[in-house]
Design brief:
By secondary structure, the chain is an alpha+beta fold. The protein has 3 helices and 5 strands; from the N terminus they run H-H-H-E-E-E-E-E. The chain is 44% helix and 21% strand.
Length: 90
Amino acid sequence: MSDIEVLDKTFHFILKRMVETGQAPHYTEIAVELGVSPEDGRKTMHTLFKSGVYGWLFPNTDFISSFAPFNNQPTQFRVTVEGEQNWFAQ
């Protein structure tokens, strides 16, 4: 898989997980999805954020804070779908 394909797969995995659960995955979950070591999953996640995707990591951590259009921490912008509120927007 090319570097671009790995980043694309990582992007889609993070977005899919946020839609399904309302929570961003940890980099170890990204690593499992990609079939790589936890350290390679962490590096791939950082590379994705450095590429210019709309989102950010919590300062000085490896935790996803926001991944457009979702926010991983509660905000005043609640998103409700079919009566279920599992998400927060940026």
